[in-house]
Amino acid sequence: MIRLAKLCLGVTLLFALTGCWGSKTIQSMDYATAIGLDYKDGLFHSYVQVLSFSQVAKTETLEIGKSIPIWVGKGKGKTVAEAFSSLYRTSQLRIFWGHVRAIVFTDNFIKNKHAQLQAYDALNRYREIRYNILVYVTKEAMPKVLTQRAILNLSPLETILDSPEESYKQQSELPPQYRFRVISEVNEPLRATLLPTLAITEESWIEDEKKKPMFLNNGAYIVQNKELKGWFSLDDLIGYKWLEERTKRFLINVPPNEPPHTAIILTNPRYRIKPFVANNAVRFNIDVYMKGNIEEMTHDTTIDKLEAQAAAVVRGQILHTYKTGVRKQTDIYGLLALLHRNEPDMYHKLNREGKIALKEDTLNKITVKIKIIHTGKYKARTR
């Protein structure tokens, strides 16, 4: 019985080992970390950023400050799948797509609805590419974007292309956009989907008296009802952050229409949008509340006055972005989408009567309340 048991165990282990014979070692694969798509002359142009395993994984031997090589492959084809498959001819090693962290579209690509639909199908159909990757659009040359260096020569994965969250926590201007959100939002009627645009600037950082290019989010394309509404600058979207649940903190200057004397950090806005019907047309009221910290104050004034001035700044920014959307017939805040979702009977009744329209007076009232809870190491008068 003992000999029979040993024989059975040996046969079992033999069959278990056969599952590893066709496996690849981690050093013998190319790891795609970002991909790009362009469309021109009737062809899809694919780009892939490849890093070695030592750059993808966190290791104790990684030398801080040492320049890390970045490889970029380029392919093309009549379909998205063919464009990426063409890279296999010259890649030398197997390309693994499971570590892709970002996808970048050119502005030419995003303006072509046929290209968008094909990419949507191909990327969602391929099993290795995950749903939690970041999505961007760029007007820059794709090779320049995919070879952009990180500050201090850290891993290329430490830029806002691949890791925007920490930067966003300090300066919550435009939220990072993820693929799973895009898939959800583009299929929801009336919902506005923001696709942040990546630019490269040499105006902010210098290394040893030499200008260093760095990534910059300078605006966003907006897609609504599966139609591209156009590009909106950061100034156009200045009020968007106050009606965004992911906003962490942002600095404003007060007073709004005079030379500023105080800088205030506002954190974690909470808001409520309330639709109602007046004169047989839909209207919206917006209530916003948040806390603030004084970062700088060069003029003696009271806390009550600062809170009122800060509220005026936020109110003006929200209204500015709304009016920008009205001029471009884009519901940036998704007011009508909220009405459709939360008050479907009201929406369908007004829609049948042809009374659903985005006008300047559709936004009825904006109420902003700000509570300053910290004044730094200096005290300030409450009244």
What's the total helix number?
Answer: 11
What's the total count of β strands?
A: 13
Provide the structure class: alpha/beta
Radius of gyration: 26 Å
Gross morphology is globular
Question: Into how many domains do the coordinates divide?
Answer: 2
Low-confidence runs (pLDDT<50, min 5 residues)? none
Mean pLDDT over all positions? 87
Major sheet: size, sense and barrel closure? 9 strands, mixed
Percent helix: 25-40%
Subcellular location: Membrane
Domain Spore germination GerAC-like C-terminal: 219-376
InterPro entries: GerAC_N, Spore_GerAC-like, Spore_GerAC-like_C, Spore_GerAC_C_sf
Family: Belongs to the GerABKC lipoprotein family.
